[in-house]
Structure formats: structure tokens, C-alpha cells
Amino acid sequence: MTDMLPVLDTESTLQRLGGDASLLQILYAAYLEDTPQKLLALAAAVSTGNFKEAGHVAHTLKGSSATVGAAAMSDKAREMELACQQGNLREAESARHALEQLFSAVRKAILEPPA
């Protein structure tokens, strides 16, 4: 499912914000600042088998990604959250790795928007 979702849907996000491009830039800046820490927290929680913490961080990441229009990232965070609820280390680790790759794509889309 994640493969069919956009990396970043700026148009829809801007529409939800009533066309407020300044607010969109504030959201993007906060997202770019906060997400790397969340990804580090996910890695630490998964590596120690702390599925409760990893699930909590994944849930937070799911919401923040949806807010900025990073639908694929939000969907993968949902998968991570479910894997943590099930105590599935292999799936959680796979989702964590995918989230890191997706964040690189989202960061690039935010910092280097198409002309």
C-alpha cells in the first residue's frame, strides 16, 4: 500500500491549511527538526525490545507525518505501530528501516520542491 502513496502531498496539505503557505513552512520546519529524533528513538526502542515505547513513537510519527502530507511515511508508521503491538521484531525492524528511507525522500521533497 505504501508504494502507491505520495511521498509528500503539498497541494492537499496546503488546501487543508486554507492556503496558508507560511503555516505550511512552519509545519515542515518542525517536522524536519523532530523526525530525526523520533527515528533515533525508534531504533533505540526496537534494539532493546521495548515495543511499548517503539509503538508510542510510531504512533506519534504516524500523526505528524499525516499532518504534513507525508502519506507513505504515515502509513509505514502505522505498520510499525501494529508490529510493535504484536511484538513482531522482524516486522518492526523492517518498518523502522523503511521509515528511515521514506524520511530521506520526504526531507528531499520538502527541501528541494519541484519547480
UniProtKB/TrEMBL annotation:
PROSITE patterns, per database record: HPT (PS50894)
Residues recorded with modification Phosphohistidine: H59
Gene Ontology molecular-function annotations: protein kinase activity
One GO biological process term: phosphorelay signal transduction system
Parts forming coiled coils: none
UniProt xrefs under Pfam families: Hpt
Sorted UniProt keywords: Phosphoprotein
Positions of the HPt domain: 20-115
InterPro entries: HPT_dom_sf, Sig_transdc_His_kin_Hpt_dom
Top-rank taxon, per record: Bacteria
SUPFAM superfamilies, A to Z: Histidine-containing phosphotransfer domain, HPT domain
Protein name (database record): Hpt domain protein
